[in-house]
Write a structure and sequence with these properties.
four-stranded mixed sheet, Cytochrome p450, binds protoporphyrin IX containing FE, 49% helix, 481 residues, alpha+beta
Length: 481
């Protein structure tokens, strides 16, 4: 006798023996029937393979470097893995073909915690479509060409800031990316005392942490979102954060446009430039090659950093930036997508509401796609003979900007900001490691990252040594104009 049949027989006998109240019997029978149907349906369906979840809790998923954990489970179970987090379904994707196919279908994100009208958190409904349309209108590759002047001016300020405060490269880079966007979006520069930037960095740090799918219990157990306010303290926290951000943004701007919720953008762009420094420190030969190219094109005695009109002539620098975006993607697991309806893919059943996690880091470290993937090697992106370079090519050959209909709308602006920042630093400075107590250089660990959904390098020290005579006054004048 099967388990199910014996359960039904026992249940019927129990009812007969105890003669309980009829309503209770009907109710209990209905519940039992529901669970039996669920059990049979689950048995009939084929789910993707994955580790056995613990009862109630589900699978263990670390909040730190989760991309490494996801890649490891895929090495054991295959490129499509099912995990369960307290009854919620998760699907981990490790290969590009599956990600491209599924992300073309799955276009919805879901977060209960911080759902505060940010574009990145909006479900795929009319409001999102409206915001996306506005973002694409001002951020498409052609429109972005119009912002080159702002990016060039900001990079001049980056150079002078580092000259004036060589030990504060980290904050100067943050300032560079934040101010570029701020000027663009709000037509306003940050306050010189640094308070605006500090507030923004705090907002972004907590946002990157809140975005992680397992950071808040309510995202693990969405049912908790039904609790009244008194029993749901996270709601007050999310509201307070949203209000603080709103006050901050409102103070900065008179007029908002479709770009008002692009906060992660600053963080990611600065993160990529910081990764470029980590690469320069660990692979100094690549830095020297890029600097030689710049000197060859601009001349050793040039007194202005490169601009976009040098782009065509700096293929190694472009390959360098692309390799940074591949080697250390700042958004290693993109943003979690959620399926809106039941689906079947490669024979696996994917229930509606499944959180789909595309592992960008895993694709970028796939040996078949990128031989010797852990090595920083700009050569892999050198254009073939006669291939014409456009700034759009910065975004080709890797998937650091995501997939499908929710691909990063800021990708053209972002990659050009990273390029501009990196070539300015290469032009102006030798980027060197500090010397430790033992007299040996102290190199940053490329596997150290700050926590959150995004991956900025861990704290590291760097010596920014000017490599030419730079006329700060002339540069300051150029920036002010
Ligand atoms: C190096 C810098 C950047 C990187 C690596 C990056 C990467 C990403 C990634 C991986 C996603 C998720 C895509 C997906 O779900 O498949 C995303 C979404 C997004 N990015 Fe970026 N981004 C960067 C800079 C920017 C900039 C400068 C802007 C705006 C000016 C921007 C605006 C957005 C927005 C609004 C979304 C949400 C799109 C949507 O949900 O439909 N990003 N970004």
């Amino acid at each position: 006798m099967s388990t199910v049949t014996s359960f039904i027989v026992n249940w019927t006998q129990l009812i007969k023996a105890s003669k309980p109240d009829r309503l209770a019997i009907i109710l209990l029978s209905l519940i039992a029937a529901h669970y039996i149907a669920l059990y049979l349906r689950q048995k009939a369906r084929r789910y993707a393979p994955g580790p056995t979840p613990w009862p109630i809790i589900g699978n263990y998923i670390p909040t730190e470097k989760s991309w490494l954990f996801f890649h490891d489970v895929c090495k054991t179970y295959g490129p499509i893995v099912r995990l369960s987090l307290a009854g919620s379904e998760m699907l981990i994707l490790d290969e590009l073909e599956d990600i491209e196919e599924l992300c073309a279908r799955i276009i919805h994100y879901s977060f209960s915690f911080a759902n505060a009208q940010r574009l990145v958190l909006l479900p795929y409904r009319p409001l999102l479509k409206k915001q996306q349309a506005a973002a694409f209108q001002v951020l498409n590759a052609r429109a972005v060409d119009g912002y080159e002047g702002i990016q060039e001016r900001s990079s001049i300020k980056l150079t002078t800031d580092i000259l004036k405060q060589p030990t504060k490269a980290y904050i100067s880079i943050k300032w560079y990316t934040a101010e570029t966007l701020q000027t663009l979006v709000y037509a306003k520069r940050f306050s010189e005392d640094g308070n605006d930037l500090r507030t923004l960095l705090h907002i972004l740090k907590t946002f990157a942490q809140d975005m992680h799918p397992t950071r808040h219990l309510v995202d693990v157990y969405p049912i908790l979102d039904k609790l009244p306010d008194a029993l749901a303290p996270w709601r007050g926290e999310a509201k307070e954060k949203h209000e603080n951000e709103f006050t901050f943004y409102s103070r900065l701007l008179r007029e908002k446009n479709g770009l008002d919720e692009t906060s992660m953008a600053y963080q990611n762009t600065a993160g990529s430039i910081l990764w470029a420094l980590v690469a320069m420190l660990n692979y100094p030969e690549t830095m020297k090659k890029a600097q030689a190219e710049i000197d060859h094109v601009l001349g050793r005695d040039s007194n202005m950093p490169p601009s976009f009109r040098h782009f065509q002539d700096l293929p190694y620098c472009t390959a360098f930036v692309k390799e940074v975006l591949r080697w250390s993607p700042v958004a290693p697991i993109s943003a979690p997508h959620q399926s809106l309806q039941d689906d079947v893919y490669k024979g696996y059943f994917i229930p509606a509401g499944t959180t789909v996690i595309p592992n960008i880091w895993a694709i970028h470290h796939n040996e078949k796609r990128y031989p010797d993937p852990f090595k920083f090697k700009p050569e892999r992106y050198m254009p073939k003979n006669g291939e014409k370079l456009t700034t759009e090519s910065l975004n080709e050959g890797h998937c650091g900007f995501g997939f499908g209909r929710r691909v990063c709308p800021g990708q053209y602006l972002a990659s050009k900001s990273v390029w501009m920042g990196v070539v300015s630093l290469l032009w102006g400075f030798d980027i060197l490691p500090p010397t430790g107590a033992s007299g040996k250089p102290v190199l940053p660990d490329p596997s150290a990252v700050r926590s959150g959904l995004t991956a900025e390098p861990g704290t590291f020290d760097v010596v920014m040594k000017p490599r030419r005579i730079i006329d700060v006054d002339a540069l300051t004048q150029a920036w002010a104009n």
